[in-house]
Write the structure tokens for this entry.
Amino acid sequence: MRCGRVSAEAVLAAILSAGTLSEAARQLGVSRMTLYRVMASPRYQRLVAEHAESVQQLIRDRMLHLATKALEKLENLLDHEDARVQLRATELILRHMIQASVSVEREELEIV
């Protein structure tokens, strides 16, 4: 859907790249009022929701990757030559396992 001569896609791209709505309007050669009209459209709202979901998925994927790397490091520290390092790695792993299981239990209680 287009509002006037500017598409919802163009408005979203301009807003994401500009620092302000005024700058986005200037980049597109339209008034801020035109931006507001486009931003109120269902098409624009869908695009924003899709963009937000895409960004959230990228963050989830990156966090999973980092968590995997961190866990591998901790696992390697379990075999460290220094017993204090081994103990600290063990404590961290167990503490996070307990926190994760408590979190899962809370979620299960909320579902019921």
The two ends are 42 Å apart (CA to CA). The mean pLDDT is 91.
